[in-house]
């Protein structure tokens, strides 16, 4: 089991009339995760059927609404050859797309004004065409990264047109200036301490997470995206898988393994903090316990008390 030493931290106390975020899960597809790609020590053939969760975020006082991630689109043929190779023989399905989940919950996706995208992998970018009026928000490093994706780079597993660049705002170092809990680089999105976009470096350039208050009395939720693909990685019971190809290049689910492991360690610190819950995008245990229930729109994920 991995152990790390970190400086102690505290989370900011709520102020009088503290705004918070109503967070609702959205069905956005399911996929088969192959354990050997993510967790060291896994045996060939081990896999898990997981959700690719997206989220509805609503500010408690202004009612401003955002979407975090877009899940899996149905027409997977649009994705690059590298993706087609990666998913061959795996179960990938979208019984209910993110836009269908929003409509079912009473929200017209055509009227959504803001979509935050954790990162550019196929199981998180969905179909941006479902949000014709939205501004898309990504981590700053995604901008340069996008310039070298498919088809400009035929070997890339990221589709260059995944998000509309003309409607995308990239949050870079000049805005990631807040420190919140164990995270040194964050952006106070509403400017009132209700929701932070957190730099989650390591998995893919521009990877971001969401850290949001879930009530006015000190409860929080951390939406960790692909920081880890299984809770055992987050707890430290398992370690990130990696190998080396014939050319001596490291092969890993994370583009920068060291930064990814560092960020996992930071998120791990939240696991024992009172009134804080951590939710991974592919958390199958949480999903099985909550699917079809009140944690999904039009319901709200209950605050941890």
From TrEMBL:
Cofactor(s) the protein needs: Zn(2+)
Keyword Zinc found: yes
Keyword flag Signal: no
Record-level Gene Ontology MF annotations: hydrolase activity; metal ion binding
Span of domain Metallo-beta-lactamase: 51-282
Keywords of the record: Hydrolase, Metal-binding, Zinc
Domain of life of the source: Eukaryota
Annotated family: Belongs to the metallo-beta-lactamase superfamily.
Protein name: Metallo-hydrolase/oxidoreductase
């Amino acid at each position: 089991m991995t152990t790390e030493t970190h400086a102690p931290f505290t989370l900011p106390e709520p102020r009088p009339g503290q705004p918070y975020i109503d967070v609702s899960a959205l069905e956005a597809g399911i996929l088969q995760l192959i354990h050997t790609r993510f967790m060291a020590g896994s045996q060939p053939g081990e896999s898990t059927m997981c959700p690719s969760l997206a989220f509805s975020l609503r500010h408690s006082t202004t009612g401003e609404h955002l979407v975090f991630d877009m899940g899996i689109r149905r027409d997977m043929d649009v994705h690059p050859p590298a993706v087609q190779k990666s998913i061959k023989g795996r179960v990938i399905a979208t019984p209910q797309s993110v836009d269908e989940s929003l409509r079912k919950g009473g929200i017209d996706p055509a009227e959504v004004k803001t979509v935050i995208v954790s990162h550019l992998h196929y199981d998180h970018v969905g179909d941006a065409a479902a949000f014709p009026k939205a501004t898309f928000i990504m981590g700053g490093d995604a901008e340069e990264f996008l310039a070298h994706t498919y088809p400009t780079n035929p070997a890339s597993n990221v589709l260059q047109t995944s998000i509309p660049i003309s409607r995308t705002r990239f949050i870079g170092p000049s805005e990631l200036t807040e420190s919140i809990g164990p995270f040194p680089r964050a952006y106070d999105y509403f400017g009132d301490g209700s929701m932070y976009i957190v730099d989650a470096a390591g998995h893919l350039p521009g990877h971001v997470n969401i850290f949001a208050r879930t009530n006015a009395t000190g409860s929080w939720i951390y939406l960790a995206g692909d920081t880890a693909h299984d809770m055992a990685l987050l707890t430290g019971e398992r370690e990130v898988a990696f190998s080396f190809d014939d050319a001596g290049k490291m092969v890993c689910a994370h583009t920068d393994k060291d930064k990814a492991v560092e960020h996992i360690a930071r998120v791990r610190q939240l696991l024992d903090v009172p009134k804080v819950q951590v939710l991974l995008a592919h958390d199958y245990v949480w999903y099985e316990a909550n699917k079809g229930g009140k944690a999904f729109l039009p319901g709200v994920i209950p605050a941890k008390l």
